[in-house]
Amino acid sequence: MNDVAWDSAIDRHLARRAVERGLARNSLEAYGRDLADFARFCVAGKVEPGALDGLALGAWLQSLASRGLGPRSQRRYLSSVRGLIRELVENHTLERDPAAALRLRPLPRRLPRTLVPRDIEVLLGAIDASTPRGARDRAMLELAYGSGLRVSELVGIRLHQIDLESGLLMALGKGGKERVVPIGGAAKRALLEYLRKPGSGNARDEKAPPRSPREHLLKGRTNSAVFISRLGKPMTRQAFFKALKGWAATDRRLRWVSPHTLRHCFATHLLEGGADLRAVQEMLGHSDISTTQIYTHLSRSHLRKVHRSFHPRAMLAQVSARPLGTQD
């Protein structure tokens, strides 16, 4: 059996995707490699395009697994093949879609990496809060970790959203949803250091009115954003990422940290401390509690670690056990 029929079908499909979706060359080449691999399997099994069925697809997926391809790679291959199959159905090469009833096992959910509280202290301690930018970064990190804000929520905070007297802020989350989030004591102190004006005795120039770190960054501009960049404009997600990476680089163990890591730490440390899952869901702004439940896996591993470390029987390296029913 030659592979002309499959080559022709794949070429037409890729040409159509290039026109209709304007795919880049690299994307088209990736699709082409996936489909060429599929076509080779079909040719070897003597499966014509018009005879493709669920059994052939299942055997192909099994062959991917036997070659060591993981679930994510299998899904990528299948996604490429599904597009080709839909076109074969549209041009009546196939009567029905054999992939419609195909179901793959759900992907295992990756647990987010987090820091222990000691590492959080190391990261915060690396920040030189004596400068306006340092005071800003310290306040941002304390607020991100202390309130569990998304990066977009953090950089988007306006002055009217913060009530330091009551220790609360109004976060504007996904879809414009508002939620009230507590501000912890450490975050409140860092915000005060960033927002308040120093006493007149601390001013270098007694003739000039003292300015807060935020006002230094504003450079005379007026803006309602709480966090201001060195250019006097509201901070962006990219700017905060760069600032965080700069402070994390002082300790090689922390170089992998991202802004979202602080949100993960917020949730994990609350649950490890005994917080209610529903309360954590509310503070994170998750619409579905199943999204929050991922952190229970982390706290369970923490409990196992504590058990192994401190329970007198769990600490034994080996336990001598004799099968039931045996005698000395």
Helix and strand arrangement:
Elements: H1 4-21, H2 25-44, H3 54-66, H4 71-90, H5 117-125, H6 132-147, H7 151-155, E1 162-163, E2 168-172, E3 178-182, H8 185-195, H9 213-218, H10 237-248, H11 259-272, H12 277-284, H13 289-292, H14 294-310
Antiparallel strand pairs: 1-2, 2-3
Helix pairs in contact: 1-2, 2-4, 6-8, 6-11, 11-14
Structural class: mainly alpha
Q: Order of helices and strands, N to C?
A: HHHHHHHEEEHHHHHHH
The shape is elongated
Largest sheet: 3 strands, antiparallel
Share of residues in strands: under 5%
* Strand line-up of the largest beta sheet: 1-2-3
Q: What portion of residues is helical?
A: 40-55%
Question: How many individual β-strands?
Answer: 3
Low-confidence stretches: 200-205, 318-326
What can you tell me about this protein's structure?
- With 328 residues, this protein is mainly α.
- Helices cover 53% and strands 4% of the residues.
- It has a 3-stranded antiparallel sheet with strand order 1-2-3.
- α2 crosses α4 (71-90), α6 packs across α11 and α11 packs across α14 (294-310).
- The chain is elongated.
- Residues 200-205 and 318-326 have low confidence and may be disordered.
